[in-house]
Amino acid sequence: MNRLHVEQPGALALVEDLGRPGFANLGVAASGALDRGALTLANRLVGNADGAAALELLVGGFRARFEGETWFAVTGAWGSVRLDGRAIAPYTAARGRDGAVLEIDLAERGIRYVLAVRGGIDVPAVLGSRSRDTLAGLGPEPIAAAQVLAIGDEPEASVPLLDQEAAFPPPAGAVAIALLPGPRADWFTDAAHANLFETEWRLSEQADRIGARLDGPPLERRIAGELVSEATVPGSIQVAGGGQPTILLADRPVTGGYPVIAVVASASLDAVAQLRPGQPVRFRHA
């Protein structure tokens, strides 16, 4: 059996796949990888099914040793990746020999790496998914130093040959995010809607897998009353009483009591996942 011996997990290392949709009626969010495109690409690079479980590494600072021999790929954030001290090109599949040490440095662009290994990370599934839900506490615990992770059986698909030129880093400057109208857009003034699209927002330090708060001018409500809790979806932009918007992400509560002024288009959610604290954000109409 191939295994991955984690020597240093970094800031936060989680097992994630494409999540557990379909349980909102039980109060369980879909969860799953925040950067779904990075997960899918990493899995395809090593011949896995798109939804195979991989590691989501916040910021980096990760080191692990291969026990057995297998292929791996690192996508998402952009930084130095080394195998036994030798640089590995980003967004490519590489062969990890038995005893080889993989090091992933702090990210230079973006904030979440995805590390996929051929066969996937083999941990018990909860409600059909191997993802960690940080709000509900479902799924495998965060990875700890000295933990040994089993790797699943070799998939039938071979490791494909892909053109390295397709790789590109997450942007370092302002990121454009597409928005759709929210279910409570009418609760906000015309000035609030103008500010939403004209302001250069910045990601605050209060950002995790549950939600990402943005710093900027408060968004004024037209309706000041309380809202009965209603369903949320990934990308919902809730506005609390103070007027600051928060983008709800994969581990969000499935219901919320703050009005949703807009919703991030699905195609822009991966970009939100790679935002760094202080990075500027501009919204546009989808």
TrEMBL record:
Q: Which SMART domains match?
A: AHS2 (SM00797)
Q: Which UniProt keywords apply?
A: ATP-binding, Hydrolase, Nucleotide-binding
InterPro entries on file = CT_A_B, Cyclophilin-like_dom_sf, PxpC
Superkingdom, taxonomy of origin? Bacteria
Q: One Pfam match, by short name?
A: CT_A_B
Q: Which SUPFAM superfamilies match?
A: Cyclophilin-like
Establish whether keyword Cell cycle is in the entry.
no
Domain (Carboxyltransferase): residue spans on this chain: 25-286
**Gene3D superfamilies from the entry?**
Cyclophilin-like
- UniProt protein name: Biotin-dependent carboxylase-like uncharacterized protein
